From TrEMBL:
Name of the protein in its database record: Acyltransferase
One GO cellular component term: plasma membrane
PANTHER family, alphabetized: O-ACETYLTRANSFERASE WECH
GO molecular function annotation: O-acetyltransferase activity
Pfam families reported for this sequence: Acyl_transf_3 (PF01757)
Recorded topology in the membrane: Multi-pass membrane protein
InterPro entries for this protein: Acyl_transf_3_dom
TM segment ranges: 6-24, 45-63, 115-133, 140-157, 194-210, 216-237, 253-275, 281-302
Source taxonomy: Bacteria, Pseudomonadati, Bacteroidota, Bacteroidia, Bacteroidales
GO BP, one annotated term: enterobacterial common antigen biosynthetic process
Amino acid sequence: MIICRLLSQLAVPAFFFISGYFYFTKYHEHNPTTYKSKNRARLKSLVMPYIVWNAIFMIVSFLTDKILLQSTIADFLQENGGIRLFWDCGRDSISKNLLEVEMPKDRCPIDGPLWFMRDLIMLSLVSPLILFLSKYAGKIGLIVMAALMVLNIWFPFTFITSVGFFFFWLGAYFQINDVSIFSPNRRRRTLQHIAAIVVFLVAVMLYGRSETLDYYFYRIFTVVGIFSLFDFALLLVKKLNINPIEGISECSFFIYAAHLGSILMIVKKIVTALSLESYPVVEWILVSVLVVCTLTLAYYIFKKYLPKVLSVLTGGR
């Protein structure tokens, strides 16, 4: 399970990198006019689905509380932080970094996975700063930012995480400075893969000994492992001719946004009834497959019968 957890740590940083990379396509045209047009487009692709999905999760959570606990809407909002449900779910969990400064921990909106979209919305707004840093801070700036991210030294707010800021900036840096994502230097790529494997193995061996060490190695692994992930993806597409599964790739955002909701709870209860506790990996795979299949079916039902609603839910993707 720890192996799956570690590998999954690469997904969101990779999305941030790709988002930063493509946001600054034709960066020389990045001026107040293009800034407005880019962010106006993101009202539909990011802001609208972000608000709608969190509103749906809020309504479902309230109805669940009302049925099980007889809660009123006032009780529900007071207990869960009210409007904060849209960005950090009213949680006050904290952790201390290397400097003993208290930092927000595991802060996310009520639809948890959408913390990525929350960060991306804010990063789009501060894109002029990202452009400036990418042009003038250079590699030294990126190294400093990577160190701050690994050591959990960052501003103590929840709107932009250090992970989001670093990888969005890294993607922007590659685009703006015309750096290839896939290094032509074979020796460099080999060293990069070796470093990723070594950090991965150390993280697995040290898992559970210290929450702080786990955090550091997770972060280091994302930094050294992300380019190995891109190389692996290139291998699948170009060398082995493996492409995303038709019909599933288009509904990936829908699955991503909905997978931690009531569907997951129901599927877990069904799988638990099968008494597979002795086979946790099988149980985990079965839950994952059933959730993906159920949400894929839901996506195509929406696509056929409620296409306009689906367009709002997916931001027109």
